[in-house]
Write a structure and sequence with these properties.
Elements lengths: L20 H9 L3 E7 L2 E8 L4 E6 L6 E8 L2 E6 L10 E7 L2 E7 L5 E8 L14 H5 L1 H4 L2 H9 L4 E8 L3 E8 L4 E8 L3 H23 L3 E4 L3 E7 L3 E12 L6 E10 L8 H4 L13 H22 L25 E4 L3 E5 L16 E3 H7 L9
Antiparallel strand pairs: 1-2, 1-8, 2-3, 3-4, 4-5, 5-6, 6-7, 7-8, 9-10, 10-11, 12-14, 13-14, 14-15, 16-17, 17-18
Length: 383
């Protein structure tokens, strides 16, 4: 079962984690049965595909995924932990299914035997976790496909308040911690209109829950908590970036990335790249549509190359060999990470895994004077 960390942070463009571990887990669990019960005295939740004896489970106390795979014969399952034989830690289960029940024995690598008693969770019986946050509507199939298994993890997760922080002498934010994953994210407390803060805080809270769930769905070494960095905080905009890394069992390779999020603090709207810098004509295309990718490929990417070549000719020069970073390739600017700074719109290009180091550039900034020409109303009052 492949699993890799998802870009769960919708308030951070859901891009740090690239292709989500929730999505990967969803592929493995959408046809699987979900069980709740105990291993020894510890409460667990398991998703198990009856046809090929592959699945995943977590202890309620820790909520971190553990992969299992093995063999099935008639109604008996022999399961080992880990994706590959070389990852086998010696822990295993021998389970028998009788209708809606799985019972058997969990044997540790040291030979300790624990009883297992699991009961089928009726499909679709777990309600949407935290309906006030509208998690499933925000994340669509990424969460729905995971079904009851992922809802059970989210339902029992809690956020702990941390110390408040004053920013710029007049704005106050409050940090919160999800203790199982270590994910930290802030809420707005003071400095902006209350309705705006309420709107943004709902999005931030949903983002934090989903980011934590994605971290915990990264089996194996796991994911590092997102490192949040505030980039621009004023009466008009709240913009920040987050950096993370992950090494999920079964993935082709470890990963790392950075993503940005920007809100309009006059309205509470989360701003897309097209909101910030639209270069097309007519109506903006729907995100992820064919027209969207046509625009990014035919209009946006070439425009970025043209502008940055004028401003940074040395950085945009043709590379000496194929191993060098080719920032003059419009393709690396089609899908970018972005956030606002005091200088303008910071862009981060996208390269393949082998050239991931090429992505961290601080000079790829679209100045406010350029942004204002495209959207004078949004950037009114900026330098």
């Amino acid at each position: 079962m492949t699993r890799f960390k998802w870009t769960a942070i919708c308030a951070m463009q859901a891009a740090l984690l690239a292709v989500s571990s929730l999505a990967a887990a969803a592929n493995a669990t959408e046809q699987a049965d979900v069980f709740k019960g105990t291993i020894g005295q510890a409460a667990v939740v398991m998703s198990l595909d009856a046809s090929d004896a592959q699945g995943v489970y977590f202890y309620e106390k820790y909520k971190h995924d553990i992969n299992v795979r093995g063999r099935v014969k008639d109604h008996a399952y022999l399961l080992k932990e880990g994706v590959y034989d070389e990852l086998d830690n010696g822990n295993r289960m021998l389970l028998h299914r009788d209708g809606t029940h799985l019972t058997g024995t969990y044997t540790t690598a040291k030979g300790k035997a624990l009883s297992v008693a699991l009961t089928l969770v009726p499909p679709g019986s777990v309600p949407e976790p935290r309906p006030e946050l509208n998690l499933e509507a925000d994340e669509g199939d990424r969460l729905n496909a995971g079904g009851d298994y992922h809802r059970l993890r989210l339902t029992s997760m809690q956020l702990l308040p941390q110390k408040p922080q004053t920013v710029g002498g007049r704005y106050t934010i409050q940090w919160y911690l999800e203790p199982h994953s270590g994910e930290r994210l802030f809420r707005l407390v003071k400095g902006w209109p209350q309705p705006v803060m309420d709107t943004i805080n709902v999005k931030l809270e949903a983002s934090q829950f989903l980011a934590a769930a994605a971290d915990l769905a990264c089996a194996g070494d796991g994911a590092t908590p997102t490192d949040i960095r505030l980039e621009l905080v004023n009466d008009s905009f709240l913009s920040f970036q987050g950096a993370s890394s992950w090494s999920c069992e079964g993935a082709a390779h470890p990963g790392a990335g950075v993503a940005g999020t920007t809100f309009d603090t006059r309205t509470g709207k989360q701003l897309t790249l097209e909101d910030l810098w639209w270069l097309g004509k007519g109506q903006k295309p729907k995100h992820d549509s064919d027209a969207f990718y046509d625009y990014r490929r035919e209009v946006f990417g070439p425009a970025v190359v043209h502008l940055l070549t004028q401003r940074h000719p040395q950085d945009m020069r043709e590379p000496a060999n194929s191993d060098d970073c080719d920032y003059g390739d419009p393709g690396v600017w089609e899908i970018v990470q972005y956030w606002l700074t005091d200088k303008g719109l910071q862009l981060q290009p996208s390269f393949g895994h082998a050239q991931q180091d090429c992505e961290g550039v601080d000079w790829a900034v679209i100045p406010y004077k350029v942004l204002k020409k495209a959207n004078p109303a949004l950037f009114e009052g900026t330098p």
